[in-house]
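User: Can you model how benzoic acid sits in this protein?
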Amino acid sequence: MKRSQHRSNISGARRRVCRVTAAALFATAGMMLPAASTLAQQPTKVKIGLMLPYTGTYAALGNAITNGFKLAVEESGGTLGGREIEYFTVDDESDPAKAPENANKLIKRDKVDVLVGTVHSGVALAMAKVARDNNTLLIIPNAGADEITGPLCAANIFRTSFSNWQPGYAMGKVAADQKKKTAVTFTWKYAAGDESVGGFKEGFEQGGGKVVKELSLPFPQVEFQPYLTEIASLKPDVVYVFFAGGGAVKFVKDYAAAGLKSSIPLVGAGFLTDGTLDAQGDSAQGLLTTLHYADGLSNPKDKRFRAAYSKAYKAEPDVYAVQGYDAAQLLNTGLAAVKGDVGKRGELVAAMEAAKIDSPRGPFTLSKAHNPVQDIYLRKVEGKENKVVSVAIKGLTDPARGCKL
Ligand code: BEZ
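Assistant: Here's the modeled complex, given as structure tokens:
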């Protein structure tokens, strides 16, 4: 007998002994022995890696996304595609330098099936690279880095939020329609700010306006005073900014305190006033922004979502909560199509690509590059709300420049 045959006969004998022993045990205990196929098919939980900021200027955004995601899971009975969920959570601190190690920990150590994250575009770019290298399914519930659904687009990468270009472009069109001729832009100097300003500039200059100065400071600095002095001396028709989270709270307050609010209209991508109005108070009143979510959308899904969210978390939802909720809805659609079998990647991806998400923002589909095709709303701050004024652009698709999908 060859050695390998011998080994396999021995292990075959051992297997038989084990089966007999198990049968005897079940019989002794008066139980029915489950079929071997039933035992083999007992699904383990789907492992979800949540890589989000839980500290720093974007901490509130990471928490809202987590809450939204978990709410959607709870609404489908604690499962997605019929399978229970196990969470693995990492605080990415909005630090791109730590992102490859954090993403690799979730993929290689925790062996997550799906990576969900993040808020900061620089961190998301690193996650996208790791996800591509490992062919891990990645769902981005905020970060708008244009590249991710541009040259870096991939079959395994999806986004349920926006591209940085989308709200910026819409605000540029709105400002041009309002007959503003000159604009100064101001942002944190990283992908999100640069691309948001790029979108604004494209829309504004297509409409006949001119961006006369582009100001920026490093993320997440908040020493705005010298820039406000420069804006005051430039006297543009309008100022467009990208700030979010804690930095947005301080910027809006500083702009008003510098006496600029009444003389130079301030506009922005809606992150400027989303999830921040309690802290911004009077300084935000009347500000116009553009975003793919707003208060006062009277669709039934939004009403149900808002009631469920405030009941669960004793807080009002914002755009970040919506994006987290929709990340879980998208994954649910994919997993349902494969009856929870994450191994059927091709079918899972095809179902996600074809999904029509019934979002609180209004229904949306995904572009070929896996970015939402969605309405962008013009909103105005009234009290504690970003009240919808109009649809600034209907069904806006990111141009996905450089995507080869
Ligand atoms: C970003 O880095 O892509 C981002 C961060 C906060 C709000 C919106 C976008």
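A couple of observations from the model: Residues 165-291 form a domain with the Rossmann fold fold (CATH 3.40.50.2300). The pocket of benzoic acid is lined by residues 119-121, 142-145, 164, 192, 244, 271 (CB under 6 Å).
User: Helpful, thanks.
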